[in-house]
What does this fold into?
Amino acid sequence: MNWLSARRTTNASRRILLAVVAVSLLAVAASQLLPRQDRGEQVGVAGYNYIAGRMLAEIPDAELARGPSETDDIAYVNRVALAVHNSTYNCEPGDFSLTPIESVLSAALSAFGLINSEIVWQEGLLQKETLICGFCSQRAIVTSDILRENGIEAWAFGVNGHVLVKFAVDGHEYLADPDYGVPAYRYDVSRKVMHREIASIYTKAGWTNADQIYDLVSSRSDNDDYSSPENISRIKARQEVVFLGADIIAFGLFLLAGYVALGLIRSRAG
It folds into this structure.
């Protein structure tokens, strides 16, 4: 009788342990579904402080692609820049949360010298599929990526504290501002013409800091590409390793949790 009671106690303890392990594995795996960023509180300016409509990841690539009837390069750039403006908002580049799996994987890869987790973090999210909010630089990078994929020579361009999209059409240089939701204007013009254009379009877009923007844009000596495409590509690739690797680990944990749960069911049936 004592032997039978001890065996029952052991089986019950084993089932409890299996249940705890299965639930723990499932919880860790499910944490991979947590969002890295939120949509922002609906306070302030839509498109700058929060997202009023769809997030960028919810917009199909085909919708952002250039249509056969879109023959006007500048009009297409304006459409994409405004789409990114409306579907993301401005926040600190590092204002996103890694899931528990991503945190552990990022720390492990960094410890082995395979990635620099600080750079990956500080540069912010740079992919259309992951970006919800970021500084002007993240929004300009993503906008430029979409434009280049659709035949527009564009890149993120720093103007001494602000980052815009610079692109070329018919031998002329233009700037567009997806951070402020401002359409394209000529960059290769005199300061007088540029000041008039910036004052007009930023004011029409509802901004009162047009003179500040003009001071940044017109200071050409310190205007330069925000970052080389190669450097941005490296950071994106490292982020993708962390995110994809974490997804694979989470899938494995889901399977392992199912296997442990199956063992629990069999032990109860026995």
Notes: The longest helix spans residues 229-269.
